[in-house]
Amino acid sequence: MIIFDEAVSFQLQIPFSTFEMNTQTIFVELLGEGTQCWRPVRAEPLGDESYRIIDPMAEDEDWAFAPGDTVKCKMHRFANGDGLLAHQKVDGTRNST
Q1: What is the number of alpha carbons within 13 Å of residue 85 lying toward its C-beta?
Q2: Per-residue model confidence as pLDDT tens digits over 23-75
Q3: Where would you tag: which of 21, 34, 61, 83 has the fewest CB atoms within 10 A of its CB?
């Protein structure tokens, strides 16, 4: 919305939510747990079933893919419902950590 003011030619008011990153929850496999476990993480959708992991990894966890990685995801049926499972790193992506 643009508000005109006599003292200033105009002010531009944009809701904060406009600048929030569009994120999606995906699931990344936890390694070394003794049984299959997945961590829900926030990721930025990039199109073509690709997502960039943006959540930080806890110091006491080891993920199959690292923060900053771009991964391909597919729908997966978990015990408590369906979700996007990271299954392949996209070549040429750089880890940001």
Answers
A1: 13
A2: 999 999 999 999 999 999 999 999 999 999 999 999 999 999 999 999 999 99
A3: 34
pTM tops 0.70:
yes
Residue type, position 70, single letter: T
User: Of the candidates 28, 36, 9, 34, which has an alpha carbon nearest to the alpha carbon of residue 70?
Assistant: 28
Q: Hey, which bits of the chain come out as E strands?
A: 2-3, 11-12, 24-30, 37-47, 50-53, 70-78, 81-89
What are 50's two structure tokens? 């690709």
For residues 10 and 28, what is the distance between their CA atoms, to the nearest angstrom?
47
